[in-house]
C-alpha cells in the first residue's frame, strides 16, 4: 500500500506567501520557499493602520502580514520600504469621513483608525474577488477591481460565468450543420452561415460589425469546416480587452471601464446569465420587486418563452451602467444554437472608446435604430432607500421600409422583463451626466 502512495501528491491549500510567513513566524529556513538566513528577518507590511508624529518624526502602526493584530508595532518612517502603502494611507486620510485628518502625538482619532482598517479589509476582499474572477474567466481580457469611493466590498451571491447557464425547463438544440467554406469571407459557399439564413456577412476583415443594429448575426459554429481564425468567429472568442469593475462616485453603484482603446464597431462583451422559462421569471420577478432590484431580460424575438436572469449568474456585463449617450450597442448572435427564441446578446462599440472611459449602454432605447435594452443591473443604492418596482418596458417602433422589417421586429420585441407583467412606471432620475441626458431613465 505504501509503495502505491509514493507518487501521490496533495495540493496545499495555503498560498506561497502564507507558507513564507509561517516560516518566518516559526523562524524556519526553507530553500524551496526562498526563506534564507539573510531574509528570515524581513517581514511584509500588510497595511498601515495608524499614524503619529513625535518631535517632527513620523511613526506608523504596522499590521504585519501573517501575524495577528496583537503583533502590530509602531515603526519609524525610515524603517518602512512600502512607498505605495504610505501613499495609500495619506490618500485614505484625505478622503476619510468628516474631512482630512491630521495626526497627533498619540495617533489618529479612533474614527480615522477604524476607517483605515475597514479600507484595508475591503481592499483585501476586493483583491481576493479579483483573483477569483480571473481564475474563472475563459476569455483573454483580464479583469481588475477597484473601489476608492466607499466601503462596499464584493457583491454577495454573484457567480461569474462565461456563457449561458441553462435553467430547469430549458432545452438547447445543438446546431446540426455548418458551412463548407474554404475562406468564409473571400470564398463563402452559399453565403456561409449568414447566407444560409438569408442574412448578410456581419463582419469586415478586422472583425468589426458592419451591419446595422437590430439585424441578427450568424457566426460559424463547431460543425463548420473553417478553423478558429475564421473572420466569422468574433463573439465566440470572448472578451479580449482588459476591463475594470469600479465603484462610481455619483451613486450609480458599480460600473465598468476599459483599460484599453477600443475601436468603433468592435465586439466588447456578451451579456450572459441564467436562461429560465417565462413562468420562472414571473416567480422570480415578484421576489426581485420586493428587493428593489432585478436583472431579468426577456428573449422574445419570436416568442415570449425564455428570459435571461443575471442576478446571481453573469459576467462583467452585469455591472455596466446606463447612459443617454452610450458607447455600446446590442446585437443578437446565433452560433451553436439557431433557435430564434434563444439569441446570444453581444455588445459592440458604437464609437472609438478611449482607455479609462466607462462602458455604457442606453437602458431606454427607442426608434428603428438600436434595439431596446434588457433590464440592467440596478442596485438598491441607485434607487435610494425606497426603490419603486422596476417597470416592464417595450420599445414601440414606427413604420419603416420593408428592407428594415427584420430589424424592426427585433427592436420591438426586446423588452425589460419584470415578472412578465406590466407595472406602473415611476420617474427614475438619471445620473449618467451626458450632455444630452434625458434626466429620467423612464
What keywords describe this structure?
442 residues, alpha/beta, OB fold (Dihydrolipoamide Acetyltransferase, E2P), Beta-clip-like, 2 domains, 4-stranded mixed sheet, 20 strands
Describe the structure.
The protein has helices spanning 16-25, 83-94, 110-136, 192-196, 278-291, 380-383, 405-413, and strands at residues 45-54, 57-64, 73-76, 143-146, 159-160, 165-166, 217-218, 243-247, 254-258, 267-271, 274-277, 296-299, 306-309, 313-314, 321-322, 328-334, 344-349, 360-361, 393-394, 415-416. By secondary structure, it is an alpha/beta fold. Helix content is 18%, strand content 19%. The strands form 7 sheets. Strands 6-11-13-12 form a 4-stranded mixed sheet. It folds into 2 domains: 44-128, OB fold (Dihydrolipoamide Acetyltransferase, E2P); 143-416, SET domain (Beta-clip-like, Beta Complex), CATH 2.170.270.10. It is built from 7 helices and 20 strands.
Short summary of the structure?
The protein is of the alpha/beta class and 442 residues long. Helices cover 18% and strands 19% of the residues.
The fold-level CATH name of the largest domain is: Beta-clip-like
What sort of overall outline do the alpha carbons produce when their principal axes are compared?
Answer: elongated
What's the number of extended β-strand segments? 20
**What's the CATH class of the largest domain, please?**
Mainly Beta
Cα-based radius of gyration, to the nearest Å: 26 Å
Strand portion? 15-25%
Q: Which CATH architecture of the largest domain would you pick?
A: Beta Complex
Cα(first) to Cα(last) distance is: 70 Å
CATH superfamily of the largest domain: SET domain
Please summarize the sheet with the most strands. 4 strands, mixed
- Regions with little confidence, pLDDT below 50 for 5+ residues: 366-426
The number of helical runs is 7
Number of domains: 2
H/E element order: HEEEHHEEEHEEEEEHEEEEEEEHEHE
Structural class: alpha/beta
Instruction: Look at the structure and give the mean pLDDT.
Output: 80
What percentage of residues falls in helices of 4 or more residues? 10-25%
Amino acid at each position: 500500500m505504501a509503495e502505491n502512495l509514493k507518487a501521490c501528491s496533495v495540493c496545499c491549500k495555503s498560498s506561497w506567501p502564507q507558507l513564507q510567513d509561517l516560516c518566518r513566524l516559526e523562524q524556519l529556513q526553507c530553500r524551496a520557499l526562498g526563506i534564507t538566513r539573510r531574509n528570515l528577518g524581513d517581514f511584509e507590511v500588510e497595511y498601515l493602520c495608524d499614524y503619529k508624529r513625535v518631535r517632527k518624526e513620523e511613526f506608523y502602526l504596522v499590521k504585519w502580514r501573517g501575524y495577528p493584530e496583537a503583533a502590530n508595532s509602531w515603526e519609524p518612517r525610515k524603517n518602512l520600504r512600502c512607498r505605495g502603502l504610505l501613499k495609500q494611507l495619506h490618500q485614505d486620510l484625505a478622503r476619510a469621513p468628516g474631512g482630512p485628518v491630521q495626526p497627533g502625538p498619540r495617533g489618529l482619532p479612533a474614527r480615522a483608525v477604524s476607517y483605515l482598517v475597514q479600507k484595508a479589509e475591503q481592499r483585501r476582499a476586493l483583491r481576493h474577488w479579483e483573483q477569483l474572477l480571473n481564475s474563472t474567466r475563459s476569455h483573454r481580457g483580464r479583469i481588475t477591481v477597484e473601489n476608492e469611493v466607499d466601503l462596499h466590498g464584493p457583491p454577495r451571491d454573484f457567480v461569474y460565468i462565461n456563457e449561458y447557464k441553462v435553467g430547469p425547463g430549458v432545452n438547447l438544440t445543438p446546431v446540426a450543420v455548418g458551412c463548407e467554406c474554404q475562406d468564409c469571407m473571400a470564398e463563402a459557399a452559399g453565403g456561409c452561415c449568414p447566407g444560409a439564413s438569408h442574412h448578410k456577412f456581419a463582419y469586415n476583415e478586422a472583425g468589426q460589425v458592419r451591419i446595422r443594429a437590430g439585424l441578427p448575426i450568424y457566426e460559424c459554429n463547431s460543425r463548420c469546416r473553417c478553423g478558429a481564425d475564421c473572420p466569422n468567429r468574433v463573439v465566440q472568442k470572448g472578451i479580449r480587452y482588459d476591463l475594470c469593475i469600479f465603484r462610481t462616485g455619483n451613486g450609480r453603484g458599480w460600473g465598468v471601464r476599459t483599460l484599453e482603446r477600443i475601436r468603433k464597431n468592435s465586439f466588447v462583451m456578451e451579456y450572459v446569465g441564467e436562461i429560465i422559462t417565462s413562468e420562472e421569471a414571473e416567480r422570480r420577478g415578484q421576489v426581485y420587486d420586493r428587493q428593489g432590484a432585478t436583472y431579468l431580460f426577456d428573449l422574445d424575438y419570436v416568442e415570449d418563452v425564455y428570459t435571461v436572469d443575471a442576478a446571481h449568474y453573469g459576467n462583467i456585463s452585469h455591472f455596466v451602467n446606463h447612459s443617454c449617450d452610450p458607447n455600446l450597442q446590442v446585437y443578437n448572435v446565433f452560433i451553436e444554437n439557431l433557435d430564434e427564441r434563444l439569441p446570444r446578446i453581444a455588445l459592440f462599440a458604437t464609437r472609438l472608446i478611449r482607455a479609462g472611459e466607462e462602458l455604457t449602454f442606453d437602458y431606454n432605447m427607442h426608434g428603428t435604430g438600436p434595439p431596446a435594452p434588457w433590464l440592467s443591473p440596478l442596485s438598491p443604492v441607485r434607487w435610494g432607500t425606497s426603490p419603486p418596482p422596476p417597470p416592464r418596458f417595450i420599445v414601440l417602433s414606427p413604420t419603416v421600409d420593408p428592407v428594415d422589417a427584420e430589424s424592426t421586429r427585433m427592436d420591438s420585441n426586446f423588452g425589460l422583463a419584470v415578472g412578465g407583467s406590466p407595472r406602473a412606471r415611476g420617474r427614475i432620475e438619471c445620473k449618467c451626466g451626458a450632455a444630452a441626458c434625458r434626466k429620467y431613465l423612464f
